[in-house]
Amino acid sequence: MKNQLFTQKAYIDGKWIESDKTFEIINPSTNSLIGSLPDLTINDCTKAINAAHEAWLSWKNRPIGERCAIVRRIFELTVQYKNEFAEIMTLESGKPLTESLGEVDYGNAFVEWFAEEGKRAYGETIPSLNGNMRLSTIKQSVGVVAAITPWNFPLAMISRKLAPALVSGCTVVLKPASKTPFTAIALAKICELAGVPKGVFSVVTSKDSKGLGKELATNPLVRKLTFTGSTEVGSMLMTQAAGTIKRVSFELGGNAPFIVFDDADIDAAVQGAIAGKFRNAGQTCVSINRFFVQESVYETFSQKLTAAVEKLKVADGFVSGSQVGPLIDKNAIDKVQNHVQDALRKGAKITTGGKHLEGNFFAPTVLVEVADDALIQSEETFGPICALFKFSTEEEAIQKANDTPFGLAAYFYSENIRRCQRVGEALEAGMIGINTGLISNASAPFGGIKQSGIGREGSKYGLDEYMEIKYLCQNK
Q1: Contacts of 305 (CB under 8 A, 6+ apart)
Q2: Where are the domains of the chain?
């Protein structure tokens, strides 16, 4: 491949690493080989952690202006190599090229934001009650950060962690998903070009996710663990990290509701549903999983949604006009098929789609009359399926939406401003989309409640995740 960012090597302590043992990365759209990367060991991971600790001793004392300037340079170089990033991302994740280009912009927005926000990591002066002390606080870097990221957003999920960590004075050891590691390696090349010192950022590639994950979670030199992925894996990592009392921030599974009230703009709700459901073929943590539609507008909404879904173009990500790409692998196809068949057995009907297409492609689907005990009500589908449930009252909609152990994102449509305030406050989720299906923004806090996570990414709160507050008490 003629792409300046494509490299079949790992990156540790400023060195490009090869190995006799490698693993292959497959394009989910064509099932063809993209390339291979070193299948590194726990010992290699430990070396990266040791290098990060050594680098942290000097990086944390680098003037904040210099750290922010380097991160700003990462932003500028990412803009310069935007097309190269997108090409790699579409190859290894399958998402349409237009979505990959959008992800480069989205992920890079966090880099730009934190390059500026890092300069505003303010402490404070505290009034002394008895007047004979000077009390103040300062913010300092946590230390070595271990980051574990998923395959569905192979650049943005890294950028949201790396940028605030670097400006805070932390160093980072990254374990990217083994299905989409080339985007992470491309970012390492950009960081090298931007002047990030050796050891400050390392990328450890491996198929041994459990082994390396445990090392990152238990190594005492690692002061913070940040993870995006399933709740099941997050729980295991949290247990492992507890032994050394690490700082943790987790963005985990979701089961997002999308509520359409009878006073909603139905056409706008359909547009929001398409935007919030079919990005990356429904394989996003904030993807809509359950559609709750008020009885009086149920038929109208389902008909208009079906018509819109039927127009979506399913194709390889490099095909012009592609809107829905493949699922990541056969296991993902099997899960989607299982959810559809379960819903049908319990009385649901298909208005469009419902079919496994060739390879890893699945037709965008609308299911109506879905039973409350269907699997799709309680499990995250992670696929291009719209499951529509009926409700009669506002209270019932809120109860059904909150009837889940997850609480990442929630969406609803209503033209009643008082209802917007009531429902926004009542829904149990970390992020609420009101009359919109797209909610993420670098300047706003991204994260969930309940079993959907701990901590926030983006915004000033995302910077605090990588800093410790130190209190200084000085006798006058």
Answers
A1: 270, 273, 274, 291, 366, 386, 388
A2: 10-252+452-475, 256-441
Local confidence band at 89 (pLDDT 50, 70, 90 cut-offs): very high
Domain 10-252+452-475 classification at class level: alpha beta
**pLDDT tens digits for 460-476?**
999 999 999 999 999 98
Average pLDDT of the chain is 97
What is the chain's length? 476
* Angstrom distance (rounded) from CA 465 to CA 168: 9
Digit-coded pLDDT (tens) for 192-249: 999 999 999 999 999 999 999 999 999 999 999 999 999 999 999 999 999 999 999 9
CATH superfamily of 256-441: Aldehyde Dehydrogenase; Chain A, domain 2 (3.40.309.10)
What whole-number distance in Å separates Cα of residue 273 and Cα of residue 269? Answer: 6
199 phi/psi in degrees, rounded to 5: 85, -20
Q: Bridge-partner residues for 390, per DSSP?
A: 293
DSSP string computed for 74-111:
HHHHHHHTHHHHHHHHHHHH---HHHHHHHHHHHHHHH
Q: Is 163 helix (H, G, I), strand (E, B) or coil?
A: helix
Between the alpha carbon of residue 22 and those of residues 40, 181, 205, 206, 215, the distances in Å are 8, 13, 9, 8, 20
Q: Categorise residue 31: left if φ over 0, alpha if ψ from -120 to 50, beta otherwise.
A: left
pTM: 0.96
415 is catalytic: no
Which residue among the candidates 251, 380, 394, 457 is catalytic per the annotation?
251
Q: Report how far apart, in Å, the C-alpha atoms of 183 and of each of 189, 204, 476 are.
A: 10, 13, 54
How does residue 2 score in pLDDT terms, banded at 50, 70 and 90?
confident
Pairing of strands 124-126, 133-141: antiparallel
